[in-house]
Write a structure and sequence with these properties.
The chain is mainly alpha-helical. It has one domain: Four Helix Bundle (Hemerythrin (Met), subunit A) (Up-down Bundle). About 70% of the residues lie in helices and about 5% in strands. Strands 1-2 form a two-stranded parallel ribbon. Helix 1 links the parallel strand 1 and strand 2. Helix 2 packs antiparallel against helix 3 and helix 3 packs parallel to helix 5. It is elongated, with a radius of gyration of 16 Å. About 25% of the residues are buried.
Length: about 140
């Protein structure tokens, strides 16, 4: 089952994804896009950093806040939530390092951009997986 950005764009839409997946009688593989709007934000932030615009740091903080807020809202308190927050923060820290590198070298290759965009899916898939398994 594939769910696009709109399907994982808000708390209610992610809860709807959970209901759809849990209603299936057979095991399914779930593929999710980045949270709604995040892919565009990741690309724009990449371009800012590569052009030497230090405002990328503010944009990155907004990306981080969106993901952490989603986790805080969706996932019940406990060990699984703490583990997910740890993983999300690690991925977001890595992403910040990549942006800093772009800012310093002023170059954005297609491969680097693809890597950056993958962080959106990597984090959202962890959120949805944790919600379905533990939420």
């Amino acid at each position: 089952m594939k769910f696009g950005g709109t399907s994982v764009g808000s708390v209610n839409s992610i809860l709807n994804v959970k209901k759809i997946v849990e209603a299936e009688q057979e095991p399914v593989i779930v593929v999710v896009s980045a949270l709604g709007g995040i892919t565009d934000k990741l690309i724009a932030t990449s371009q800012m950093a590569a052009s030497g615009d230090s405002g990328y740091e503010v944009a990155l903080a907004e990306i981080k806040k969106r993901h952490i807020d989603m986790i805080e809202t969706l996932i019940p308190a406990g060990g699984q939530k703490e583990n997910l927050l740890l993983i999300a923060n690690q991925l977001l820290t890595e992403l910040g390092g990549i942006y800093q590198g772009l800012y310093l070298i002023r170059d954005l290759s297609a491969k680097t951009l693809a890597t950056i965009v993958s962080y959106g899916e990597r984090i959202s898939s962890r959120i949805v997986t944790t919600l379905i398994e533990w939420g």
